[in-house]
Design goal:
Helix content is 50%, strand content 9%. The chain is α/β, with parallel strands linked by helices and 284 residues long. It has a single domain, classed as Rossmann fold. The protein has a five-stranded parallel β-sheet, with helices on both faces. 34% of the residues are buried.
């Protein structure tokens, strides 16, 4: 919540610093959508988006938001449930929830960057609305993601569970009998499957894959990202300083590491995350 308030405060503080002198406000929306440079991070969440937010803010030409209001928690589930036929509705969802931010960013001559994983299920709408947008697919090891999600209480009474996606091809009773490992493993696989479907459908020159493990450990990863979005690289010492400070760590509910799980639980996660083979996390 504090982060959301900070994002909103930042928005109003910056409002007075406009660089574009606009006289035709009727035609402004078209200019914004056609010309705004934007970057969106697609992920499962718990993948390093908070860290990436801090790294992006090293560049003062970036207007970076992590979880702006509205945060689209429940709307993201609706966007997912609509499937391929819901593009128009997803576009309306984006314009109604983000136009004011796009406008502010455009008028200030900045690059709009949002790392909110809830936008993952709006990717096709963002791609169509903003032809200059680019996307980063941030992938985390399913073992680390599931451990983090279980520790956070996902699908176990977490206050955002009302906005968490659930299978449409599994009946409700069967889903209720899934363990937390199964549910969060399914979430990891399904979310990345949706992103993979997006990548296959659209111009891959506008999409970059990044592994969280590289982001956490290798300072040059951000420089690689900067090159992808046509920005000068940040200094390595600045990046290293941020990487030395853990971000958004889970400090309680000590759910064990994957190698401490029972063999049956390990096999359960393997079986429900087949996409992890493609990403190199599981052996064939």
């Amino acid at each position: 919540m504090i982060r959301k308030i900070q994002d909103s405060v930042r928005y109003f503080k910056q409002k007075k610093y406009l660089e574009k002198d606009i006289h035709d406000y009727i035609g402004l929306p078209e200019k914004i959508f056609n010309d705004l440079e934007a970057v969106f991070v697609l992920s499962t969440g718990r993948a390093g988006t908070d860290l990436l937010t801090r790294l992006f803010r090293l560049n003062r030409n970036n207007f970076v938001l992590h979880e702006p209001i509205p945060d689209l928690v429940y709307a993201a589930k609706g966007a997912y449930n609509l499937g391929q036929q819901g593009l128009v509705a997803r576009k309306l969802g984006i314009t109604s929830s983000r136009y004011h931010l796009f406008k502010e960013c455009y008028l200030r001559g900045l690059v709009y960057i949002e790392t909110n994983n809830k936008l993952t299920f709006f990717a096709d709408a963002l791609y169509d609305l903003l032809p200059k947008s680019r996307f980063i697919h941030l992938i985390r090891d399913p073992r680390a993601f599931v451990r983090s999600a279980v520790r956070r209480g996902y699908y176990q009474g977490h206050d955002f569970d009302d906005g968490r996606i659930t299978p449409q091809n599994i009946n409700e009773e069967e889903w209720k009998n899934f363990s937390p490992i199964q549910k969060n493993g399914w979430l990891w696989n399904e979310t990345n499957m949706v992103i993979e479907g997006f990548i296959q459908k659209f111009d891959t020159n506008r999409i970059l894959k990044i592994y969280s493990e590289d982001l956490f450990k290798d300072p040059t990863t951000l420089q690689h990202i900067s090159g992808f979005i046509d920005q000068p690289p940040s200094k390595l010492n600045q990046i290293e300083k941020i990487l030395r400070k853990p971000v958004n760590q889970q400090l309680k509910n000590d759910f064990p590491l994957f190698n401490k799980w029972e063999i049956s639980a390990q096999e359960t996660l393997r079986s429900i995350t087949p996409l992890a083979i493609k990403y190199g996390y599981w052996d064939i």
